[in-house]
């Protein structure tokens, strides 16, 4: 009994350590104090109103956001990068997982391990490497280099997710489809793809969320004017901790939870 009580206290402390800062960000996003966010001065929605381009109700609430247009442009860039990266990473990551799982070739284990390197490599090392690579080959930094850079490591995430699904897939189903006269394309479309769809969907959503939240790698390979939302928030932090930052972070958290919940719901329907 004593062992379980100690384990319960440890678990409670662990979750408090992980989630307490997130809860504080959400709580203080409604703080009316425009000077010191750590001193509660009443409830307000002014910071959310300013984000959406509306006038703050309190006359004492200063406008900290330099430009709502810049914020919206950063959000738009992040969505373009995330959707593009997700599409490319999902296609290539799924194809790699199928190739490694279905074809027997020498050094398959080494090839699989090589695909995991981008996941375990420090972000700053990968960001510097990509920056040097683009400069060496004479490519101007732009939104295209951000998409390419994100794909270099997000393909690995999709590969791992789909590979886990393929590991529990009964190969006799594909063999039965071939015995019944189905072509390889028909077998893939009607048997393999529906069976691995939860893994593909999970990998795509994971790639989308990571791409939306990435800062370090994007910071190195983004061109002038191609500012994503994390970089925009980082720029705001460098000029001081502003009240709107808590509100923006809270909205990003809600968006991430909605995407994750939608993914779980769709995955259950697929199953």
Describe this structure in words.
The chain has 271 residues and is mainly alpha-helical. The protein has helices at residues 2-28, 46-51, 68-102, 108-120, 123-136, 143-167, 171-179, 184-213, 216-221, 229-238, 243-270. The chain is globular and about 70 Å long. The chain starts with a helix and ends with a helix.
Order of helices and strands: HHHHHHHHHHH
Calculate the mean pLDDT score and round it. 84
The CATH architecture classification of the largest domain is: Orthogonal Bundle
Please state the CA-atom Rg, rounded to the nearest Å: 23 Å
Per DSSP E runs of 2 or more residues, the count of β-strands stands at: 0
Q: Helix share of residues?
A: over 70%
How many helical elements?
11
Instruction: Please give the alpha-carbon distance between the first and last residues.
Output: 39 Å
Low-confidence segments, ≥5 residues, pLDDT <50? Answer: none
CATH topology of the largest domain: MetI-like fold
Major β-sheet annotation? none
- Please report which band the strand proportion falls in: under 5%, 5-15%, 15-25%, 25-35%, 35-45% or over 45%: under 5%
**Which structural category fits the helices and strands?**
mainly alpha
Number of domains: 2
CATH H-level name of the largest domain... which superfamily?
MetI-like
Task: Please write the CATH class name of the largest domain.
Answer: Mainly Alpha
């Amino acid at each position: 009994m004593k062992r379980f009580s100690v384990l319960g206290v440890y678990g409670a402390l662990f979750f408090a350590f992980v989630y307490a800062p997130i809860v504080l960000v959400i709580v203080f996003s409604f703080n009316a104090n425009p000077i010191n966010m750590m001193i509660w001065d009443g409830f307000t929605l002014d910071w959310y109103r300013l984000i959406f381009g509306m006038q703050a109700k309190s006359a004492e609430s200063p406008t900290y956001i330099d430009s709502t247009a810049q914020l919206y442009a950063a959000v738009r860039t992040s969505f373009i990068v995330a959707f593009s990266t997700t599409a490319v990473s999902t296609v290539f990551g799924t194809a790699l997982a199928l190739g490694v799982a279905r074809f027997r070739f020498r050094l398959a284990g080494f090839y699989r391990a090589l695909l995991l390197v981008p996941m375990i490599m420090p972000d700053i090392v990968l960001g510097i490497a990509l920056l040097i690579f683009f400069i060496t080959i004479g490519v101007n930094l732009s939104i295209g280099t951000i998409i390419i850079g994100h794909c270099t490591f997000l393909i690995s995430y999709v590969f791992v997710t789909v590979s886990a699904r393929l590991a529990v897939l009964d190969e006799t189903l594909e063999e039965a489809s071939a015995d019944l006269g189905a072509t390889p394309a028909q077998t893939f479309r009607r048997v393999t793809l529906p069976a691995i769809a939860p893994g593909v969907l999970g990998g795509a959503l994971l790639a989308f969320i990571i791409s939306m939240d990435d800062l370090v790698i994007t910071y190195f390979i983004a061109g002038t004017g191609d500012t994503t939302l994390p970089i925009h928030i980082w720029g705001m932090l460098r000029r001081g901790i502003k009240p709107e930052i808590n509100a923006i972070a809270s909205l990003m958290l809600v968006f991430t939870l909605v995407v994750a919940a939608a993914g779980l719901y769709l995955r259950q329907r697929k199953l």
